[in-house]
Amino acid sequence: MSEFNLIHEYFTRNAENADLGVGDDAALFRVSPHHQLAVSVDMSVAGTHFYADAAPYDIGWKSMAVNISDMAAMGATPKWATLAIALPDINREWLAEFSRGLFSCADAFKVHLIGGDTTRGALNISIQIMGEVPTGKALLRSGAKPEDDIWVSGHLGSAALGLAQLQGKIELPAEVRQICLAALNQPKPRVNLGLALQTFAHSCIDVSDGLLADLGHILQASNLGASIDLSHIPCQTHLQSRLDNPLIRQCILAGGDDYELVFTAPASQRAAIKSLSEQLNLPLTTIGHTTKNLGLSVHYQGQILEISQKGFDHFG
Ligand code: ADP
Ligand code: MG
């Protein structure tokens, strides 16, 4: 199978939101008037971001999902993607499943693949996502204000516990395990939440490296500190009663890969955010507030926790 047949068979679909998709030297598309183009790229490397023998459907889904999540975190509408992929060899079964997962996720969020690059090499998937946001409305890390509420969507810790289960570090009950592995393998980017937050939030980030690390990015960019409470952080009920277990605690505070949104908003928006939560059928929970004083303190049962590891750092 030639490189060009491979591209044609597995990566060429109608890109109805573009003027020109896969097939020429470059794709062409138009950004809506009065919008800014939002661009981000995320690489998924075998052995670093996923096990090479993981289900190819999941690898495809997740490599698209983590990119779409960056659009969600900016309050942008994801629209176009390009895919640069290195493959060790041509495995049709693998490619069919990978492309099915990739396009399932893209379709779920109306993202169209408009180009890419295909080469031989160690398995490596790099997706560039492009989206649009009304000019000036993007949710920045730098926008938080003192005494903002700090909010988290969905549940934290599930993906990291799923990974701990795969690594044999914990044995979870079947139904908890299933939720954790789904969170790890097929994260659901919070695009609708990000869009709605354009009106309510001062700042936003998605949790890819762990709550403390990612909240830390907001605090640093906004030149603020924060105070949060471990027992307020939303997690599955099974975990809620096991916060004294160091691994579970670590997964909730510093586990990556959940792709939930962490955002800050003034207290005056509490009622609006609660009704947004009902409207989206997505839990939105306050875990603490920002402070003028720098530093991030985590409270639990009346004490301040010593935190050793804040999150994932490729070179840490
Ligand atoms: P060029 O040599 O001009 O860079 P390529 O032969 O690399 O062109 O690619 C041919 C066409 O296929 C281009 O439109 C490119 O964007 C697209 N393409 C290549 N690889 C992929 C891929 N993995 N996914 C989607 N489109 C791809
Ligand atoms: Mg090329």
What can you see in these coordinates?
It contains ten helices and eleven strands. The protein has 316 residues and is an alpha+beta fold. The strands form two sheets. The protein has a seven-stranded mixed sheet with strand order 6-8-5-9-7-10-11, with helices on both faces. Strands 1-4-2-3 form a four-stranded mixed sheet. Helix 3 (92-108) links the parallel strand 2 (77-87) and strand 3 (112-120). Helix 4 (158-166) crosses helix 5 and helix 4 (158-166) crosses helix 9 (246-254). The mean pLDDT is 96. Adenosine-5'-diphosphate (ADP) binds next to helix 1, strand 2 and strand 3.
Shape: globular
- Structural class comes to alpha+beta
Radius of gyration: 20 Å
What's the N-to-C terminus distance?
41 Å
What integer is the average pLDDT?
A: 96
Spatial strand order of the main sheet: 6-8-5-9-7-10-11
Topology as H/E string? Answer: HEHEHEEEHHHEHEHHEHEEE
| Poorly predicted regions | none
- Strand tally: 11
Count of separate DSSP helical elements: 10
Major pleated sheet? 7 strands, mixed
**Which range best describes the helical content: under 10%, 10-25%, 25-40%, 40-55%, 55-70% or over 70%?**
25-40%
Q: Roughly what fraction of the amino acids lie in strands?
A: 15-25%
Q: Write out the distinct hetero groups bound to the structure.
A: adenosine-5'-diphosphate, magnesium ion
Looking at how many chains there are and whether they match, the oligomeric state comes to single chain
